[in-house]
């Protein structure tokens, strides 16, 4: 799957999985911060994203300290998926 | 006003028939679909709180009923946050979400977002966070809605100056029936209107 296609898919999955009913997936910027300001996700959302990566992409985050970097934005998640799928 | 008369009280009530503010019908439940009904009510009440969509069903009706009971009122204008309490009685605990979570476990999957709602008192947390209430709070799981027990407990909080205002009531959700009722009351020595009986 190409990077652009993956990013669009991730935006849709984030909105659905995290029940962000008032957000249009297309309105999420590729580089937009997901936690804190930006989309304002919380710690439970982070755990849901971990589950999403495991169940949809078969990927685990082996070091919890990598989480903030991986989940910073849609782009960083997409890059993590592509890099680790290739490995 | 006599100090033993009920103080200014508003109520919010939701069941499968609709949503009511005091005796006024706010929204009739025309669909038999809980999600459609509660989403429509959320929009009608003009609430801006996207986290609503993440709540489980028990929290959704408790949250919406509390919003109705607090309609057009800002308790913070008169009371400090740590003097505003919440008291809820519930009969079926978080059974609806417990069943959903058990099904996920049986399927070998997990959902932290479902797991966090496998406690009934989360509804108090949702209301407290939304309204910045930091006073005494308690949810009691009881076979029946014991309004005398609720009255005595809240009255003791008023008399001991633990709270100056509170919302209290009954919130319950099962797959077949749901109901939420809140009254907002304030000042000491109020008297709960002993009129309410849960319909299920």
Chain oligomer state: heterodimer
Q: Mind telling me the C-alpha Rg of chain A?
A: 12 Å
Low-confidence stretches of chain A: none
Helix content of chain A: 40-55%
| Pattern of helices and strands of chain B | EEEHHEHHHEHEE
Cα gyration radius of chain B (Å): 17 Å
Structure description:
The complex is a heterodimer of chains A (87) and B (200). By secondary structure, chain A is mostly helical. Chain A is built from four helices and no strands. In chain A, helix 1 (3-17) crosses helix 4. Chain B has one domain: Peroxisomal Thiolase, Chain A, domain 1, CATH 3.40.47. Chain B is α/β, with parallel strands linked by helices and 200 residues long. Chain B has a seven-stranded mixed sheet with strand order 3-2-1-7-6-4-5, with helices on both faces. Classes of the chains: A mainly alpha (87), B alpha/beta (200). Chains A and B meet through helix 2 of A and loops of B.
Task: Offer a quick outline of the entry.
The complex is a heterodimer of chains A (87) and B (200). Chain A is an all-alpha fold.
List keywords for this structure.
heterodimer, A: mainly alpha, globular, B: 200 residues, alpha/beta, Peroxisomal Thiolase, Chain A, domain 1, 7-stranded mixed sheet, 7 strands
Task: List the topology elements.
The complex is a heterodimer of chains A (87) and B (200).
Chain A: H1 3-17, H2 43-57, H3 67-70, H4 74-86
Helix pairs in contact in A: 1-4
Chain B: E1 10-15, E2 18-21, E3 24-28, H1 34-44, H2 57-69, E4 84-90, H3 95-106, H4 112-115, H5 122-131, E5 137-141, H6 147-159, E6 165-173, E7 178-186
Parallel strand pairs in B: 4-5, 4-6
Antiparallel strand pairs in B: 1-2, 1-7, 2-3, 6-7
Helix pairs in contact in B: 1-2, 2-5
């Amino acid at each position: 799957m190409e990077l652009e296609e993956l990013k669009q898919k991730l935006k849709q999955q984030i909105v659905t999985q995290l029940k962000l009913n008032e957000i249009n997936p297309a309105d999420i910027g590729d580089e937009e911060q997901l936690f804190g300001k930006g989309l304002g996700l919380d710690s439970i959302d982070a755990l849901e994203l971990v589950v999403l990566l495991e169940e949809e992409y078969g990927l685990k985050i082996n070091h919890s300290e990598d989480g903030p970097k991986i989940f910073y934005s849609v782009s960083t998640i997409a890059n993590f998926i592509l890099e680790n799928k290739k490995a | 006003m006599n100090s033993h008369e009920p103080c200014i009280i508003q109520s919010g009530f939701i069941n499968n028939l609709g949503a009511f503010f005091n005796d006024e019908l706010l929204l009739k439940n025309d669909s038999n679909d809980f999600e459609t009904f509660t989403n429509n009510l959320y929009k009608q009440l003009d609430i801006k709180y996207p986290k609503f969509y993440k709540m489980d069903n028990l929290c959704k009706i408790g949250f919406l009923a509390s919003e109705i009971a607090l309609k057009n009122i800002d308790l913070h204008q008169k009371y400090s946050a740590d003097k505003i309490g919440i008291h809820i009685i519930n009969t079926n605990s978080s059974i609806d979400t417990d069943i959903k979570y058990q099904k996920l476990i049986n399927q070998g999957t997990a959902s932290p977002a479902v797991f966090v709602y496998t406690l009934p008192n989360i509804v108090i947390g949702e209301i407290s966070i939304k309204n910045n209430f930091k006073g005494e709070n308690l949810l009691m799981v009881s076979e029946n809605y014991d309004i005398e027990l609720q009255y005595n407990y809240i009255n003791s909080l008023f008399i001991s100056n633990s709270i100056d205002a509170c919302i209290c009531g009954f919130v319950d959700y099962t797959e077949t029936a749901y109901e939420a009722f809140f009254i907002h009351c304030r000042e000491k020595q109020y008297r709960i209107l002993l009129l309410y009986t849960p319909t299920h």
